[in-house]
Amino acid sequence: MKILVTGGAGFIGSHTVVELHSAGFEPVILDNLYNSNREVLNGIKQITGKDFPFYELDCNDIEKVRALFEKEQFDGVIHFAAYKAVGESVEKPLKYYENNINSLMVLLRVMEEFKVNKFVFSSSCTVYGQPDSLPVTEDTPRKPATSPYGNTKAIAEDIIRDHVHAGPGLRAISLRYFNPIGAHETSLIGELPNGVPSNLVPFITQTAAGLRKSLTVFGSDYDTPDGTCIRDFIHVVDLAKAHLKALLLLKDVSDENFYDVFNVGTGEGYTVLNLIRTFEEVNNLKLNYTIGPRREGDVEKIYAQSDKVNNVMKWRAEKTMAEALRDAWNWQLKLVNTL
């Protein structure tokens, strides 16, 4: 199957391109390089030995997206491309609603037009808001998102569900990610944010490498064992493989119109300080960090129950948090050495 990967030069997208190729799929990469780097394509090529078709364009441009579908005969789409910084979304909500919602609408319209019937959407555990009980299951009620970013994911899920219900011949899955971390074991691809990182682990690795003076831990007075937020951290390679499983499930379902959601996490929650200490132990170094005030938009604690994805998609996380933090540091060292 030929699969369009939007945001395919990004962190999760690039690893998914590699795993798609390993499993015999034909990935085609679409990315506007807003929060990614063309150099990632070289890393993908070194790992796979192959140059995949790459289109530098924006998913919001319906005419260019339509021209791409006309040129390539896609069997499915994995949609990663979106703005994703929680803090920035609080400051610039209209930017997030306009980009994240409109790009989805464009893709669904063009997919329907060209009769492309398999769609995997990059959703987020942020759709649960701050849940009343843990771990969260797919049946846990969605609560108001704590950030505009999270709300764009909830709205996007509703749009996909309603579109499928209208009977366009679409089979779709939303994967509700928890917190992807790590890098490819070759250190040829990893998380490469432009400017100030919005995610925790790149901030940790850049601080450890001396590129930043210190790391700020946002809040130490939460109702958790050490006062810092709890998250479910998943290795990005494991997460990438979940997209393959989703495509295979969509290929096999008998319903012409199908929609389902899956939590993709390890099922274990770790505090931010626990993550930092594991990073220090695994990589034998000390990290300079300070405790700061809470950050608006952050959820106190959340982690997944993974029974559904384990049983239905036959997927489970295989890599540990320690492995992910080792891989992330090796990736950072490679970046420093190549600058």
H/E series, N to C?
EHEHEHEHHEHEEHEEEHEEHEHH
CATH class: Alpha Beta
Instruction: State the major sheet.
Output: 7 strands, parallel
The total count of strands amounts to: 13
Widest beta sheet: strand line-up: 3-2-1-4-5-6-11
How much helicity do the residues have? 40-55%
Q: How many domains comprise the coordinates?
A: 1
What is the CATH-assigned architecture? 3-Layer(aba) Sandwich
CA gyration radius, whole angstroms: 19 Å
Sheet-strand content, in percent, reads: 15-25%
The CATH homologous superfamily: NAD(P)-binding Rossmann-like Domain
Features:
single chain, 339 residues, alpha/beta, Rossmann fold, 7-stranded parallel sheet, two-stranded parallel sheet, 11 helices, 41% helix, globular
Overview of the structural elements:
- Residues 3-265 form the NAD-dependent epimerase/dehydratase domain.
- Pathway: Carbohydrate metabolism; galactose metabolism.
- Homodimer.
- 41% of the residues lie in helices and 16% in strands.
- The chain is built from eleven helices and 13 strands.
- The chain has one domain (2-338): Rossmann fold (3-Layer(aba) Sandwich).
- The protein is α/β, with parallel strands linked by helices and 339 residues long.
- The two termini are 37 Å apart.
- It has a seven-stranded parallel sheet, with helices on both faces. It has a two-stranded parallel sheet with strand order 7-10. The chain has a two-stranded parallel ribbon with strand order 8-13.
